Amino acid sequence: MSPRRVALLLVAWSALTAACARSPRQIAWDAGWAQAVAADQADPASAERWAALAATAPRQVDAASAELARGDALLAAGDPAAAARLWGHLGEDAPLRPDRARAHYEIARLAEQSGHILAAVNIYRRLVLTYPDLMPGERALAHLERIFAARGPRGVAAHLAWTRAIYPRLQHTTLGDNVVFYPAQLAHRRFRETGDPAAAALAERLYAQIDALHPGSGLWNDAWWQRSLLYHRMGRFDDETRAIRRIQRTREKISLFGHDEHVYFWRGQIRVARLQLLELGRPADAAASLRWFIDTYPDSVWRDDAIYWRACALLAAGAGAAGEAELTRLASAYPESKYLAWRDDARADPRSPRCVPKDFGAGEAP
């Protein structure tokens, strides 16, 4: 039996086991939860329904979820003080760490929305330091970036000073790459706006730091992608190509559930072909790059585009017969393609703007 079929059977078996294991009490409680969710949360009775669900919850996780929802209902009913008190108790006493994190996060959001920005900042910072591995910690960091960015350069500088100070503590957590990626983006943006080579050098160094110190992080691909865009603006086209190829080397040829695809894989391939055609003057290489895309992504919505661009690249390389073969292939496979009307343009000038692959890096500001 194939590994893929074994995996699917295991998933199905797990789901069946979980369904069979659910008790009548849990099923009844879940039905009550659905009814409470559907009710008007601003109705004062809504908070009472959530309290009853918390009191009868079959599991601790269910009770905490109901209490968190009761806080939302109290807030919706116009009693933020009661909501804050409830979340405060949960933040201290909830048995599960994710529920404590969520409770503190709700208090921080309430503080910010109420105009108590300093209190919100202090809670957001504690969330980042205490729960960097949970969503409230990640969201708290994003809120801090937004709050301090709104204060202008001094605010951004203050936030960056704080993140530099806490980086050693967060370096080996799931927020370590975020702490590095944000200033890299700021430096990259400054280079785009001013052309300052020092900003470019700083952005490159920080993107490289993510590769060196956070190789398995969620922002690793993004750091390399942004690095490739940085190189493009700097005119370092060979480095840009190498950056894209670095991302593509992580593409798994075979995985349990098919190809491990990422949008940067195929977009990067078209970007490389565009570079080879426009900036490097290697149309034959561009044709080869587009051939890889066509063969690798037979169901892509960009496949007829790639066939046409490849025809242009072949014609530009002096391979007229091969270019004509691609145009014939285009007409056969995609009789409704808009590119059929451009075939004569391609033959007349295979380097015209109509023959240039789409720029998948345009407009992707950091």
Structural commentary:
It is a single chain. 73% of the residues lie in helices and 0% in strands. It has helices at residues 3-21, 24-38, 44-55, 60-76, 80-93, 97-113, 117-130, 135-149, 153-170, 176-194, 197-213, 220-234, 237-248, 263-278, 283-296, 303-316, 320-333, 343-348. Helix 3 (44-55) packs antiparallel against helix 4, helix 6 (97-113) runs parallel beside helix 8 (135-149) and helix 8 runs antiparallel to helix 9 (153-170). Mean pLDDT is 90; it is low at 1-20.
Mean pLDDT: 90
Q: How many DSSP E strands?
A: 0
> If you compute it from the alpha carbons, what radius of gyration comes out, rounded to the nearest whole angstrom?
27 Å
Q: Tell me what portion of residues adopts beta-strand conformation.
A: under 5%
Number of helical stretches of at least 4 residues:
18
Give the proportion of residues in helices: over 70%
The major sheet is characterized as:
none
Q: What is the N-to-C succession of helices and strands?
A: HHHHHHHHHHHHHHHHHH
Shape: elongated
In whole angstroms, the N-to-C terminal distance is 46 Å
* Structural classification: mainly alpha
Residue stretches low in confidence (pLDDT < 50, at least 5 long) are 1-20
Ordered list of secondary-structure elements with their pairings:
Layout: H1 3-21, H2 24-38, H3 44-55, H4 60-76, H5 80-93, H6 97-113, H7 117-130, H8 135-149, H9 153-170, H10 176-194, H11 197-213, H12 220-234, H13 237-248, H14 263-278, H15 283-296, H16 303-316, H17 320-333, H18 343-348
Helix pairs in contact: 2-3, 3-4, 4-5, 5-6, 6-7, 6-8, 7-8, 8-9, 9-10, 10-11, 10-12, 11-12, 12-13, 13-14, 14-15, 15-16, 16-17
